[in-house]
Amino acid sequence: MGKAYNVMAATCPSRTVLHRIGARWTVFVVNALDDGPRRFTDLKAHIQGITPKVLTETLRSLEADGLISRHEYAENPPHVEYALTPLGRSLLVPLRAVRLWAEQHVPAIEAARARHEKDADDEV
Amino acid sequence: MGKAYNVMAATCPSRTVLHRIGARWTVFVVNALDDGPRRFTDLKAHIQGITPKVLTETLRSLEADGLISRHEYAENPPHVEYALTPLGRSLLVPLRAVRLWAEQHVPAIEAARARHEKDADDEV
DNA sequence: CCGGATCCAAGACGATACTG
DNA sequence: CAGTATCGTCTTGGATCCGG
Q1: Nucleotide at minimal C1' distance from the B78 CA
Q2: Could you say which of B4, B29, B75, B88 would form a disulfide bridge with B84 (CB–CB 3.0 to 4.6 Å)?
Q3: Helices A106-122 and B52-64, interaxial angle, to 10°?
Q4: Which tens digits make up the pLDDT trace of A75-112?
Q5: Which residue of A has its CA nearest to B47?
Q6: pTM exceeds 0.90, yes or no
């Protein structure tokens, strides 16, 4: 029995999964829930620059895929908490690594870009 | 001395890095170079469904960021090879994990989507 | 507090044809 | 073989305002 799924295959269902993971804000939301449940406004404040509309869309998508859970308390004013499901926590492992990689390699990337920029100039 | 970079901050340079990593085809190209250098046509065949234009754009971006190297042999017909740089190989580690996660959790995601679909129907 | 509704802009992505 | 050129589409995402 070989591998069941392969993202390199055009019609493999894993591509839709990858597409969801790769969505612009998924890595932010999943990482933001790393240290426990958070409320909507809390998430919005933590993930700087995200708009309420996009945050809502992202949360709904992740909920549909079973990566986060939404718990609504019957209070007024409203009180809603989002948390990672076990499946979401398993995704957190690679996504945390991606986040860390991005944060740790900023200087290397910027240096490469500067070098590339310079090479382009030299060719003129 | 605290952490230098934080993707949660709106203006942090790590966001541009994350944006590049998150580009639709980055994870495919980096993973495709996992087991050694490949030629353009080889990549295109391996990453099913990618168009030459998009593949070129992705390769150029990754090259500009110092993640892959492009080696051109002075032959006719043309012979060009792409390979991961050390920096690119360091990115391969988390991106390979992302790819594996996507491939391994297809059934879980599909089950969650079906459940979600059913819940939506039940509310009607 | 937690969103929903609406409108709009950008750019990513795709299809196709062509060339050194 | 390894791309370019062109064009069109179409999904994302952003801005803003409103409502339960």
Answers
A1: D1
A2: B88
A3: 110
A4: 888 999 999 999 999 999 999 999 999 999 999 999 99
A5: A8
A6: yes
